[in-house]
């Protein structure tokens, strides 16, 4: 049964992982309650913003998610996040309990590497100035690769002998070793396809093994770089350097602390703030524009006013938002997550008789997931009679779900 996707936050100490996690999970009351908001200190539920199926069928006014929220077709879907703290240079050799933290990483489907681009923390997270954060991207990646490679090389002799003795194929042999990282045979097959390795596994050189581990790391842990602390004056030059090294698709600029601050002010009634947007309005702003809503907001003292103005200048106006919501969306994009909407009634999209609320449920699955796998994930082992898609047409269980295709499904149980 496919698990729910899990996104891991990695980064050196003090890069802003916990702040980013809080900024993504401290959802305001409009998002409603999810039963596992805090699972343990390292795990939390974030909200991924997606386009809801309700807008496609013009029923947004009746869209009432069981979990998360949907406002005019923009839906916040709960997604699990994991704060993988404690990664420092040397972690793969056990430094700073690094092995334990790398172990946590096994469960993640994608990573958000939170990078402190202010240059005010060194590789170990200690306060400094002028540190080059592009180094963090290099060493952190290398810790993960060396950890996986080390685990593999420890047993390479016996892995090889077994491989030859049972005439296994390389996918089987590697999958045996990589299943502990949550790999599937498909992950391993894609890794080997990409490299086009020709030699039989028993003759692989250390260089070949290294490139296999590198390619596997790319397949198993697609990574978004959250360049955090863009509110800091030294951030620009560091961002420029990293932008030259990395695929632009993998980079998102953010200021986690700004998002936390704005959400807090909104909760306390000082500003009106649309989470993840560039719009922050104070009482003064609203009253000036003749919006009576302004009356509902509290007065700001000079200090708060200045802080908000600075935040607008340094972050919102320059970058368009605090960026944290995009960090999560980008990770979901890399993973190719598809929102699937199970409904009981395929014509009304509701939960059943006498219930006019629509699209109560939404589950996130990885790209390439079949209708059968969705059914198992949602219905468990209940025997499936048939599946209906939008318009009431029968859908084959072998079909793959995609955004806009086979993503609204009604599972009919029975023999
Ligand atoms: N200037 C600035 N500081 C930040 C930002 N995000 C986090 N910090 C600060 O960086 C420090 C470390 O943050 P924390 O989230 O605890 O880092 P962690 O060790 O990676 O979990 C704290 O003092 C935060 O207030 C940001 O966006 N801008
Ligand atoms: Mg932390």
* N to C succession of SSEs: EHEEHEEHEHHHHHEHEHEEHHHEEHEE
Largest sheet: 8 strands, mixed
The total of beta strands comes to 14
Strand percent estimate = 15-25%
3D structure, described in words:
This is OBG-type G domain-containing protein. Keywords: Nucleotide-binding. It holds the Pfam family YGR210-like_G4. This protein is an alpha/beta fold and 415 residues long. The chain has 14 helices and 14 strands. The strands form 3 sheets. Strands 1, 2, 3, 4, 5, 6, 7 and 8 form an 8-stranded mixed sheet that branches. The chain has a 4-stranded mixed sheet with strand order 12-11-14-13, with helices on one face. It has a two-stranded antiparallel sheet with strand order 9-10. It has 3 domains: 189 residues, Rossmann fold (3-Layer(aba) Sandwich); 64 residues; 61 residues, no CATH class. Helix 1 runs parallel beside helix 10, helix 4 packs across helix 8 and helix 7 crosses helix 8. About 3% of the residues have low confidence. The structure holds guanosine-5'-diphosphate and magnesium ion. The site of guanosine-5'-diphosphate has 15 residues, from helix 1 and helix 10.
Which features would summarize this protein structure in a list?
alpha/beta, binds guanosine-5'-diphosphate, 4-stranded mixed beta sheet, 8-stranded mixed beta sheet, binds magnesium ion, Rossmann fold, 18% strand, 14 helices
Summarize it.
This is OBG-type G domain-containing protein. Pfam families: MMR_HSR1, YGR210-like_G4. The protein is α/β, with parallel strands linked by helices.
């Amino acid at each position: 049964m496919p698990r729910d996707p899990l996104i891991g936050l990695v980064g050196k100490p003090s890069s802003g992982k916990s702040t980013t996690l809080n900024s993504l999970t401290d959802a305001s009351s409009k998002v409603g309650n999810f039963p596992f908001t805090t699972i343990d200190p390292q795990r939390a539920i974030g909200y991924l913003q997606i386009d809801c199926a309700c807008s496609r069928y013009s029923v947004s006014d009746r869209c009432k998610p069981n979990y998360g929220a949907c406002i005019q077709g923009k839906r916040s879907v709960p997604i699990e996040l994991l704060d993988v703290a404690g990664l420092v240079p040397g972690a793969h050799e056990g430094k700073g309990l690094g092995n334990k933290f790398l172990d946590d990483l096994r469960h993640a489907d994608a990573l958000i590497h939170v990078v402190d681009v202010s240059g005010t923390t060194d590789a170990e997270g200690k306060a400094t100035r002028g540190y080059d954060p592009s180094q963090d991207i290099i060493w952190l990646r290398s810790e993960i690769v060396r950890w996986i490679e080390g685990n593999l090389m420890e047993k390479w002799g016996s892995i090889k002998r077994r491989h030859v003795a049972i005439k296994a194929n390389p996918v089987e042999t590697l999958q045996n070793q990589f299943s502990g990282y949550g790999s599937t045979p498909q992950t391993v097959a894609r890794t080997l396809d990409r490299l086009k390795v020709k030699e039989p596994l028993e003759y692989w050189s250390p260089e070949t093994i290294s490139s296999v581990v590198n390619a596997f790391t790319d397949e198993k842990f697609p990574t978004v770089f959250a360049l955090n602390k863009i509110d800091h004056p030294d951030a620009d030059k560091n961002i420029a350097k990293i932008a030259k090294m990395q695929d632009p698709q993998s980079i998102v600029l953010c200021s986690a602390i700004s998002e936390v601050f704005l959400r807090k002010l909104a909760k306390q009634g000082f500003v009106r703030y649309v989470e993840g947007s560039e719009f922050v309005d104070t009482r003064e702003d609203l009253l000036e524009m003749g919006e009576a809503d302004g009356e509902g907001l509290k007065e700001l003292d000079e200090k708060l006013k200045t802080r908000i103005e600075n935040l607008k200048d340094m972050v919102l106006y320059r970058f368009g938002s605090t960026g944290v919501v995009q960090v999560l969306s980008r990770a979901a994009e890399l993973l190719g997550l598809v929102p699937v909407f199970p409904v009981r009634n395929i014509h009304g999209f509701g939960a059943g008789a006498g219930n006019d609320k629509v699209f109560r449920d939404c589950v996130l699955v990885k790209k390439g997931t079949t209708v059968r796998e969705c059914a198992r994930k949602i219905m468990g082992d209940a025997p499936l009679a048939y599946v209906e898609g939008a318009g009431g047409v029968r859908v084959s269980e072998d079909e793959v779900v995609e955004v806009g295709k086979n993503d609204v499904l009604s599972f009919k149980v029975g023999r």
